[in-house]
Amino acid sequence: MFVIGERINGMFNDVAKAIKQGDKATIQGLARKQMEAGADALDVNVGPAAEEPLRAMEWLVNTIGEVTDAPLAIDTTKFEVMETGLKLCKGKAIINSTSGDKEKLDRFLPLAKKYNASIIALTMNKSGIPQDAQSRAEIAAQIVTCAQEQGIDMNDLYIDGVILPVNVAQDHSREVLETIRQCKLLCDPPPKTILGLSNVSQKALNRPLVNRTYLAMAIACGLDAAILDPLDKDLMNSMITAELLMGKQIYCGNYLEAYRKK
Amino acid sequence: MEKATEKWASKVNELIIGATQKEGGTRNSLIKVGGATTLPFLHFEGVIPNPPVIAMEVWDMEPPDWPAVLKEPFGEVLGDPVEWAKKCINEYGANFLCLRLASTHPDTKNNSPEEAAATVKKVLEVVSVPLMIIGCNQAEKDTEVIPAVSEAARGDNCLVGIAVEANYKTITAACQSDGHSIIAESPIDINLAKQLNILISDMGFSPEKIIMHPATGALGYGLEYTYSIMERSRLAALQGDKMMSMPMVNFVGQEAWRAKEAKASEQEIPEWGPIASRGPLWEVTTAVSYLQAGADILVMCHPKAIDSVKKVIEELMKKE
Q1: Under an 8 Å CB criterion, which residues of A touch B?
Q2: Where are the beta strands (DSSP E) in chain B?
Q3: Residues 4-23, chain B: which have Cβ within 8 Å of A?
């Protein structure tokens, strides 16, 4: 599993405050802690409240770059903010994200190519988020076609089936799992699949339980990557165990520890 | 047609055995194993920086069960580890030796740890190639013997063993304090192999200094079980499993020469052909199979068998 740590996001109060005050220690602490907890990459989102998103992104990427060369997922819908982030990344960059709209793909895919970045593409378009797996897979197929035309390696393309909160769109949980399965049939080698996991449990009462249960189910469907909170140890343990049960790791008594030694 | 190649994420650990004066040891040469970024001998797919190596067995006593055809090349020196070691190097071109302290076994001479340590010291003084040192493979006795011989070889970065689940703590501690690499053995079981690697590294021992012994089965005696486990281990290493990325060793000679097919006389079973070539061939066939399974170190006995396998390695390491 490719884990993208979600914690450096201006939606969280501590991060918003740190951005506002130029408090490097908080951001760098979050970067370090997430990497130690098993993140393979870090999401970077300035949040909706940032007054100058461009400068905030610049500051965040540089601040994180001082403590780690980890790949960064530049999380913004704004093209200029995206390119600013990509330019400054020390490690591999990940574009987070584009939708399936042709005009967006035409801008973001060349950007991925230019910066040798991976790219996350959501199975949604101007008409919104599809109701079922079939329609999501159709958008995924369009994304794959565009990406192939642009010469993007399928290992660098992450399809996100867009999970909605279970308390408002219960049917979607199942449909997204089916989307993950269908993405694997689109081409050979298939694109990777990813989830912004925490969204499934927005406003639910026991968020960690919903998160880790859904993650295990998604892994069983072939999920390759997730944006999640690596500091949730139970969640990480569920993830490691699900991968073990899928035969992705060799079992041994201390398999949790073995995974963390990787 | 396009060649189908796999892109692996990781590689087998690279390990150096021996230490020259520069590294604080007394050896004149080093042995380097591992480091491959692909399956055995797939040169078109990845890099295989170090060829598999052969360690030639030297015992600290005359081997009680060796058949005449295996004793014959050594003659007089059997029972004298120093002369035996010299013969391996000078006559048979060995560049890596495996000193087996069989005399410490309670069922043979039950020699003391001190006697074993003295033997190790003498051999190290006389020969200058890197050394693998193993006890008598009795877990309890090895916990007494290995710390003593490990200390006697301190600084020479030997490959010491054999650590099993029952005695790994003592052997790991000895290797740790005297700067040796360790052989970790598990009973043809990939899950236990991984567990032992974790337990050893949990003691603060570097995973990069572990060599796995997945147990060895001779041709006709379970070779295919070990083979499949070695293949899976190698695949796990290439996929990035750090607790399975260790190079592997096989005790080919020990197992091949236990086989009836290697030992039975011509009078007993005439249709099996001349014993002079049958035994070495059994050892060669076993060894070559393990090369294909991913062995990094082969511990072997018969000089003729070793010669043949060296040639095979040379062929397999040719890139075209």
Answers
A1: 249-254, 257-258, 261-262
A2: 14-17, 31-34, 53-59, 97-100, 131-134, 159-163, 181-185, 210-213, 249-251, 297-300
A3: none
B207/A261 CB distance under 8 A: yes
Q: What is the pLDDT of residues A105-122, one digit of tens each?
A: 999 999 999 999 999 999
Partner-chain contact A257 B240, CB within 8 Å: no
The whole domain housing B204 covers 14-316
Q: What is the pLDDT of residues B132-177, one digit of tens each?
A: 999 999 999 999 999 999 999 999 999 999 999 999 999 999 999 9
Measure Cα distances from B300 to A60, A255, B74, B305 in Å. Answer: 59, 34, 14, 8
CATH number at residue B142: 3.20.20.20
Of the partner residues B201, B202, B241, the one whose CB lies closest to the CB of residue A250: B241
Do residue A261 and residue B195 have CB atoms under 8 angstroms apart? no
- pLDDT score recorded for residue B4: 83
CATH number listed for the domain at residues A2-260: 3.20.20.20
Domain boundaries, chain A: 2-260
Half-sphere exposure of B230 (CA within 13 A, CB side): 29
